[in-house]
Amino acid sequence: MAGNYAELPLDEYQDLTHTVAVVTELVVLDDAWTREAMASSDPATRDDSRVEQLGGVVDRLDQLYGEIGGLGSRLGDIFRAREDLLRERYEALVSDEAADRPRAPRTRSLTPDERSRVRAFVDDRGQGDVVALAVDAAYQLEQQAGTQRQTVRTEYDRIRGGASSEGDIDPDFEFWVQAVSLAATLALGPEAGGVVELIGGIIAWLVG
């Protein structure tokens, strides 16, 4: 499949970079949401002014869940169309020989521990098939984004009403986000230049 090794079409490139951007913002804001939700659930640390400010974070999380869900079908198509490329780059990423190969500018090899944990992630959740894992995750995001949007709204309403909430993202939804972020990063590859610098952050979140 020669197309797998050509430069990505610009529409695919945009969808993949958008995915990485959405995931990055989602991870940061979800951390803020969880921290503030837990603080607001404890009468000893509750601050009504911060509860109101938290509404802005919830609004943005709602938008981000919608965006990642809206990308789902297109990401599934991209991952299927670029399956040879994804498999090749995944194997290169987790290979024990990766540290000895020349690296593209602004990239780094994974540490042995990171390689082992990424392999375990794909083996455990995708039976070793990174493409099947990513395609299924993209489909699940498309199907479940609406539920996640409703959940964050419901939990925020509970907090505003004085009830408690841990503010955690659904573990399955988090897994699906991790899987598509890994595949999107692989698809962008060294040609993405500075984007590849995010691989360390993405992997640290994925295997943390």
Which key features would you list for this structure?
single chain; 208 residues; mainly alpha; 73% helix; disordered N terminus
Summarize the topology.
Blueprint: H1 10-41, H2 48-81, H3 83-94, H4 112-126, H5 130-160, H6 171-188, H7 199-207
Walk me through what this model shows.
The chain has 208 residues and is mainly α. Helix content is 73%, strand content 0%. The protein contains seven helices and no strands. Helix 4 crosses helix 7. The longest helix is centred in the N-terminal third of the chain and has 34 residues. It is elongated. It starts with 9 loop residues before the first helix and ends with a helix.
Radius of gyration: 18 Å
Distance between the termini: 35 Å
Q: What are the low-pLDDT stretches, counting only 5+ consecutive residues below 50?
A: 1-5, 191-197
What is the H/E string?
Answer: HHHHHHH
Strand runs, count: 0
What's the tally of helices?
A: 7
DSSP strand content? under 5%
Mean pLDDT: 84
Using the alpha-carbon principal axes, give the shape: elongated
Outline of this structure?
73% of the residues lie in helices and 0% in strands. The chain has 208 residues and is mainly α. The protein starts with 9 loop residues before the first helix and ends with a helix.
